[in-house]
Amino acid sequence: MDGTSDRRWLFARLGLCLVGVIQSPFLMDSMPDDFSKSSWPFFVEMWAMVSVGILIVVGFQKINPKMDTPWEAPSWTRCPFVLKQPLQFFHFGAWYLMSAEIGSLIFGLSKTPTNWFWELPLSSGAGMWTGVWILNRFQRNTTQS
């Protein structure tokens, strides 16, 4: 698993995202909290916290002297489980969470009362994707300089 591009990883990632959609009703039912009302402030707070968390945790890996491998830009055709390529892993994680959001949105809005659980995986996935996007842009700018 050297991180090279391979179409099999595209199908593996798409399959795992499909699992996220399918598992979402079970995930919703396992959450004991009250999601009967929309909470956009929570959405924005969660998005910001996850974005900053990714920037800090993964950003520290960039300055780690043992991390001598340049990071590759996130790609759907690369293995997301290569330890020296954290952007690949978190890129996949972001899309997995946003896939779980799609299922949660479909199943949550069809329930009575409406279940707004979908805001949690969407805000987490969007925050993760934002952090990865910023790190990828920062890396491209520093390698071009």
Describe the protein.
Helix content is 67%, strand content 0%. By secondary structure, it is mainly α. It has a domain at 86-139. The mean pLDDT is 87.
Oligomer: single chain
The main pleated sheet reads as: none
Structural class: mainly alpha
Total number of beta strands = 0
Features:
mainly alpha, 4 helices, 0% strand
Please specify the SSE layout and strand pairing.
Layout: H1 7-30, H2 40-62, H3 86-109, H4 119-144
Provide a short characterization of the protein structure.
This protein is mostly helical. The protein contains four helices and no strands. The two termini are 30 Å apart.
